[in-house]
Amino acid sequence: MEVKDLTVLERASLLSGKSTWATRALKRAGIPSMVLSDGPHGLRRQTGSGDNLGMGKSKPATCFPTAGTVACSWDPELAKTMGQALGSEARSLGVNMVLGPGMNIKRNPLCGRNFEYYSEDPQVAGRMAAGLIEGIQSQGVAATPKHFAMNSQELRRQASDSVVDERTMRELYLTGFEIAVRQAHPWAIMTSYNMVNGTYANENPHLLKDILRKEWGFDGMVVSDWGGSNSAVAAAANGSSLEMPQAGYDSVRQVAKAVQEGRLDEADLNARAEEVARLAKLTYHSGMDPDGNLTADQIRDHHQVARSIAEGSAVLLINRKGRLPLAAGTRVALVGDMAETPRFQGSGSSKVNAAKQESMLDLLRQGNGDGLELASYSQGYERHGEKNQSLIDQAVAAAGQADVIVACVGLDERSESEGLDRSHMDIPGNQVDLIKALGATDKPLVVVLVAGSPVTADWIDQCDAVLYIGLSGQAGASATLNILTGRVNPSGHLAETWPKSYADCPSADWYPDPAHESIYREGPFVGYRYYLTAEVEERFPFGYGLSYAHFAYADLTVDDKGVTFTLTNDSDRQGATVPQLYVQAPKGGVLRPVRELKGFKKVSLEAGQSTQVRIDFDQMTFRHFDTASNSWQVESGDWTIMIGSDARKMELSGHLRVQGTVDPQSPDPALGAYLTGRVKEVDDAAVTALFGHPVVRQGAVSTFGVNDPLSSWKDSRSAVARFVANFLAKSESRHETKTGNPDLNTLFLLNMPPRAMAKMTNGLIDTAMVEAIVRIPNGHLWRGLGGFIAGFFRNMSANRKTGKELNHE
């Protein structure tokens, strides 16, 4: 039986989930149910009913390094290896779809979910994501790149409008997704919670129809983020296939009624239902056990995979006087609570119940430090506490017994999580005090830095060496020791710029935006594009990373199809590095950053070895998006082609005469400060010139609607609504103070618009009941309660009828 032969109601039923993690099956049509699961760096296969934020129990699985860490490897093949392991575990755990990779551009270092995203640059994000997707799908499991698109802040994430000019959106925020779609052909893609230029992403025709499906040729399934569907009818009409999690039968009835009344073309319903059915059949595997577990071999082998990824992703930030690697027999004073209880992943829906764990302290105590001797261990600081001078004094005293101090410091669990953004870029002050005290001793100080995104590092002058391990997964401790001892040569390079201070960031003055609109005033000047163009000095540039080896670049040749050059490891130690291809447009052309990354290659060389490296151009190398013609164009003229060891340091340079599609066209003088990249100085006239129209903000909310977050009820005239908002806020604050961890479910509720209640309660609440609920914050308590109660009984009756029609009960 074909999908088109099903009843309208049956086809509509395929467009929403059956439970938190499963889709509906239609046995008479041979359409199986699919199980979907987070996450991007390890399976979160929950038992029981499950929840969308990772609060419930989940089965053990390998916790790999997070995307923000893996991106520092600049190695798509390594990402592919990780994807193959993820896909294998998905099969073992009965999972059809892995909800990842996360690949939003890192617009600002304070985004709470940056650890889940790859980079500030679409080339790195797109190519790393493509590697992971290819690996996952090689196992017959769907990958789901997310969150499409412009999901750049956690504050108000379900009720925020990302307002961005078309050219910046196309060139910066969508290009990574385009690379992943064109190269890896993902079978599914997930939309973001937010609006994009006034329309929810999950029903945005420009994103889903014009760009994703028509321009890029995507023919897979589009799924909403959990509770991220606004209108089921608009979603189906505009290219979104499946709303999750369990919207009950309310959405089914809405879609069926819209078809019957001619408000939804039946061809659109058929297309969406066919996308769901096709993927369900594609990812169905005989013998797949929804109650399955990992095998002992998988646990062992994938732990080693996780270690190799962590080793390839760690970034050596400083190494004064060749302090690292440490020689066998070195007596180490190990300091820091994170050396005993490691933090190796972020908080939220991606949190994995790690199948295996290890710590630097345990490994050294067991003699697994490749010859390092543990002289002492000191806690050094309270993980979630204030300064404790006695702990610092103990660490300083214990250091006297050692040859070198290794201090493990970084951001704690409260700092990086889905649901909230960071309030600053600093590591905890008690850790800074510890570093300064240890740095004042006569012992060399090596810092192992744990964080999923950049931190301020004014303390770095106190250190002899700093190894940034990111959020390195369950095998991060052994990977770290392998690098410290030289068993592994560090080869990671930063996938985002580290500013000297948060005030230096281009969007610092307007991020995160608490208003309805999050206006991307900085335009294309994000990350290194800003620091280079506006001539603002950073702490560590994009693409930066040291090695125990040294590499020399020579003999650049540029032709019409790419570049060739010689790379030599002129040291006495094997190592790997990442040559990076940057281009600079002809002078006098359209507004652009001073240079942009257009390619890269991870290259490993033995001591003294030389090799020729080839990096090809592609269709994205020279293009820009022309808003006047709504098309991609290439400027003719003399392009500068550069090979860098990071975005700031260009090793080789050449030129190429490009015959493009248009002659260089000078930018509009009205762009003002944008012309020099100094986005902090732009005025409203320049913003209007960038966007092509005035950017108008929505005024203060006077009437609360179904899409205003519960947190906004604190300004309601209703005492009941104010109580709800304030109670939730105080409850989250108490939980964080007590446990040291954010209360993710409460944060989700605070950011949640009421309409999500109709999408996440398995039919218990429908759209009409939500409309009754929002009467309460608008001052109509009894009308709201009365409408809700009447709606409850009406909805239950309708659900029973729909269930019988679908033979579900």
Automatic annotation (TrEMBL):
<comment type="similarity">
    <text>Belongs to the glycosyl hydrolase 3 family.</text>
</comment>
<keyword id="KW-0378">Hydrolase</keyword>
<feature type="region of interest" description="Disordered">
    <location>
        <begin position="36"/>
        <end position="57"/>
    </location>
</feature>
<dbReference type="Pfam" id="PF00933">
    <property type="entry name" value="Glyco_hydro_3"/>
</dbReference>
<protein>
    <recommendedName>
        <fullName>Exo-alpha-(1-&gt;6)-L-arabinopyranosidase</fullName>
    </recommendedName>
</protein>
<keyword id="KW-0119">Carbohydrate metabolism</keyword>
<dbReference type="Pfam" id="PF01915">
    <property type="entry name" value="Glyco_hydro_3_C"/>
</dbReference>
<comment type="function">
    <text>Catalyzes the hydrolysis of a non-reducing terminal alpha-L-arabinopyranosidic linkage in ginsenoside Rb2 (alpha-L-arabinopyranosyl-(1-&gt;6)-alpha-D-glucopyranosyl) to release alpha-D-glucopyranosyl (Rd). It is not able to hydrolyze alpha-L-arabinofuranosyl-(1-&gt;6)-alpha-D-glucopyranosyl (Rc).</text>
</comment>
<dbReference type="InterPro" id="IPR017853">
    <property type="entry name" value="GH"/>
</dbReference>
<dbReference type="InterPro" id="IPR036881">
    <property type="entry name" value="Glyco_hydro_3_C_sf"/>
</dbReference>
<keyword id="KW-0326">Glycosidase</keyword>
<dbReference type="InterPro" id="IPR050288">
    <property type="entry name" value="Cellulose_deg_GH3"/>
</dbReference>
<dbReference type="InterPro" id="IPR002772">
    <property type="entry name" value="Glyco_hydro_3_C"/>
</dbReference>
<dbReference type="GO" id="GO:0005975">
    <property type="term" value="P:carbohydrate metabolic process"/>
</dbReference>
<comment type="subunit">
    <text>Homotetramer.</text>
</comment>
<dbReference type="InterPro" id="IPR013783">
    <property type="entry name" value="Ig-like_fold"/>
</dbReference>
<dbReference type="Pfam" id="PF14310">
    <property type="entry name" value="Fn3-like"/>
</dbReference>
<dbReference type="InterPro" id="IPR019800">
    <property type="entry name" value="Glyco_hydro_3_AS"/>
</dbReference>
<dbReference type="InterPro" id="IPR026891">
    <property type="entry name" value="Fn3-like"/>
</dbReference>
<dbReference type="InterPro" id="IPR001764">
    <property type="entry name" value="Glyco_hydro_3_N"/>
</dbReference>
<feature type="domain" description="Fibronectin type III-like">
    <location>
        <begin position="577"/>
        <end position="647"/>
    </location>
</feature>
<dbReference type="InterPro" id="IPR036962">
    <property type="entry name" value="Glyco_hydro_3_N_sf"/>
</dbReference>
<dbReference type="GO" id="GO:0008422">
    <property type="term" value="F:beta-glucosidase activity"/>
</dbReference>
